[in-house]
Design goal:
Largest sheet: 5 strands, antiparallel
Number of helices: 10
Distance between the termini: 13 Å
Structural class: alpha+beta
Number of strands: 26
Strand content: 25-35%
Strand order of the largest sheet: 6-5-23-24-25
Shape: globular
């Protein structure tokens, strides 16, 4: 893998927004502007390199499923969850509830050495629309302008794979008598628009697969006391093809019963005991008490195993010395002098501390908002991200390798100035050279 630089496309800011990437521009706490989309750089793979990285990604996914079973045994305690939330994740894994997608974060030097797994977000991965859509349109523009040869390809089959996955799930839902309506939920707590954008794209691919889809905010999900079901917002009677609807409070209205839900919302928050539905019922308690009665939730509850940083410890215990893994422990550095301390529920680099042998400690200054019940931490061996210097200085890339229905289908590359990939990293597209 190598990094190249190109002149940014004319009017690229408008172009990326047209592709759906509406949250590229942000501002740091000190007032300086930051652009997330890097239109003037790209990472170049060879086809054999992509095939090898896909193989490594799928091997890591298979190992992670094995590790999830190990975690469900209780070998690592309750993973920072309450006992009842842990039981829900156990039950979901036993039921083999279907899932949609996930994203590995990999360190990769591009010199033929194995990629190293940094973490796995199996519950709420974002960065999807730029990996699936925006960088694809970038490639088409570059080919059209003559900047890249016409036969240039890209490591990106995400859109087609997502449509196919949702088509399979639709047929399954119809066969199970759960109908063809999918609710797609996000939280309005995201002020950047990334969550909204991700679920909007998920609605697009689900609709292309044949689902009737309805957007909803997490706080709008209601609880019907009589039917003991989760419901959407009231709507005119007969306005939906949902197989299940309940009379609304107002004549001529109905509550659509939610039988299929894609939620971009962490399971550890859902089962934290803090979230409420209409009527002040506790969200997680309802889910736990009524498990198996509420249709399909995507991602399923067993993804609590794959999004928990203790997965790194489980993998190292089961596959010590594996070339794609870094040593990881749950009880301290165990002799490591360069290591990273991670909170079990952390995302986007929040709460991560990099400890070096000279005694220095680096963090991004952000603390993750939720601790595990026992303040659990993971100590993972520090792995220096490679530097692909450019005209503006250092670029430390992390490969976001996507898994859909057990297979690797594409990559999104985020590069940062320093060793921690945080909210102010840059997304650079990729190409496969002929």
């Amino acid at each position: 893998m190598r990094r190249i630089e190109l002149d940014p496309r004319p009017d690229w800011e408008r172009t990326i927004k047209q592709s759906g990437l509406i949250y590229s521009h942000s501002v740091r706490d000190d007032g300086t502007a930051v652009e997330y989309w890097n239109d003037g750089a790209a990472y170049v793979f060879t086809l054999p390199e992509v095939e090898e990285l896909e193989k490594q990604t799928e091997e890591l996914h298979r190992m992670s499923l094995e590790a999830a079973t190990y975690m469900a045994s209780g070998a690592l305690g309750h993973l920072g969850l309450s006992p009842k939330a842990f039981e829900l994740a156990q039950w979901s894994l036993e039921q083999d509830e279907p899932d949609v997608y996930a994203r590995f974060d990999l360190a990769y030097a591009g010199d033929g050495s194995p990629a190293k797994m940094l973490e796995y977000n199996g519950d709420t991965p974002t960065g999807l629309i730029e990996a699936s859509v925006t960088q694809w349109f970038w490639l088409q523009d570059r080919i059209k302008s003559g900047a890249l040869p016409a036969d240039t390809d890209q490591w990106n089959g995400l859109h087609e794979a997502l449509v196919e996955r949702w088509r399979t799930l639709l047929h399954r839902s119809l066969n199970e008598g759960e109908g063809g309506r999918l609710f797609v939920a996000h939280s309005d707590a995201d002020t950047y628009g990334e969550d909204w954008d991700t679920v909007a794209y998920m609605r697009d691919v689900a609709g292309e697969a044949g689902w009737e889809h309805t957007g909803i905010e997490m706080k709008e999900i209601g609880w019907h006391h009589g039917a003991r079901q989760f419901v959407g917002v009231p709507e005119p009677w007969g306005s939906s093809r949902s197989i299940a609807a309940l009379p609304g409070d107002t004549p001529g209205t109905q509550y659509p019963v939610i039988r299929n839900l894609f939620k971009l919302y962490p399971w550890e928050d859902l089962v934290s005991g803090e979230d409420r539905v209409v009527g002040d019922q506790e969200f997680g308690a309802l889910l736990i008490a009524g498990r198996g009665l509420f249709g399909r939730w995507y991602e399923p509850a067993w993804k609590m195993f794959l999004s928990n940083k203790l997965l790194l410890v489980a993998l190292w215990r089961l596959f010590p010395g594996h070339p794609n893994l870094l040593p990881a422990y749950a009880d301290g550095p165990n002799g490591m002098t360069d290591f990273v301390v991670k909170p079990v529920f952390g995302r986007e680099g929040d709460g991560i501390q990099v400890h070096r042998r000279d005694g220095s400690v680096t963090s991004n200054g952000q603390e993750y908002r939720r601790e595990g019940t026992g303040r659990e931490r993971v100590w993972q061996q520090y792995h220096e991200l490679p530097d692909f210097p450019g005209s503006q200085g250092s670029n430390h890339p992390v490969l976001g390798s996507w898994v859909i229905n057990q297979e690797a289908f594409g990559v999104g590359i985020r590069e940062s100035d320093g060793p921690i990939t945080d909210y102010f990293c840059r997304f650079a597209p990729n190409i496969i050279e002929n």
